[in-house]
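## Example pair
The file below holds two records. Each record gives the amino-acid sequence first, followed by its structure token line.
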Amino acid sequence: MILNHPGFVTADADSPREDTITIQTRNQVRHLLVLDIDRDNAIAPQDLSTPAFDVALAADRLLASDPSDSERATTELLNYVAANWDKQDLPLREHAQAVARTLRTR
């Protein structure tokens, strides 16, 4: 799923840590992703229905549906806002939630 993103060119599991993946973008920027594995296949209680989680979930659902270029840009922006939720001001958070709600109704 990671390499479905058009900006990523490689994704390598980091050894010996099996819970990390290094991805590299087309412009040679490398990111380290650390996986949080829940052995019970349950969502952590703190992740249930938080605004940031809801925004990211709506964006990810659209991303998985073969989005257009403009929809892909929207999902990238929403995922960025969700990942940095605590750093965003209230108007931007509210706008991201409104956009995410419109994505869920499509």
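Second record, same layout:
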Amino acid sequence: MSVLTRLCRGAGLLKWSSPLITRGEPRGVGSTSTAQQADEDILRNAQKQNQQTRIDLATSYRAMEYYNLHMGVCNHLTALCPAANGEGTVMLLVPHGTHWSQVTASCLLGLNEKGALKDCTLRMIHQDSMRFYDNVAYDTEYDGFATTGEEGPRIASKLGDKIALILGNHGVLTVGQTVAVAFDHMYYMERVAMYQMLAMQTGGELQEIQPQVAARWSLMQEGLPFILPYAETHLRGFKNLYAKKSPEVLQ
């Protein structure tokens, strides 16, 4: 299988060969490699190839813009590569409306064969990220400003039983059993997104926390008894601050 890069302008078609990641043959007798180690190697290789493809594709966008081989924001280049999380492949393409002179490796979207956003998701690169392990939903069906109540049920169905929903082309939604919990989730969601963006800007390979570690932490903090005391203390700190600084807030 190869990476296919298509220039949607007339009959222009570019093909760049780049093998997708495959599981290697078992190592020789005496090897200490385990199934877990093999999976970790595959994940690292997938992340490395994903990042390299992003760099190559972003550079191609810039070079095509340099040669004036673009039509405003109406055409695009795409590339197939391993998903950064090691689960299948994704098609990388530029977000709609982005001028080719502004394309970066980190801004490219990764979609699966069903058109669902896969590669621009929250990555487990910081201990705070683990709060959201398998607990974030994504909405890629932005349809303009909501002026009726129809948007509510649709968003609720997207959110499901998760604590956060990333709304494509819009923003972030967090929920909680109390105001303090929802507030605390939002604070940490913004923080981990910032960490991820800063890390991606280095252009280096991200060192992700192993899924079993993230899952263990997620199970440990699952439920209100673990989160609530910290969330309430977090919000109470601001109540105390504003009681002195801006008492009208509490009136």
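Notes on the second record: Helices lie at 35-66, 151-159, 179-200, 211-220, 224-245. Residues 121-251 form a domain with the L-fuculose-1-phosphate Aldolase fold (CATH 3.40.225.10).
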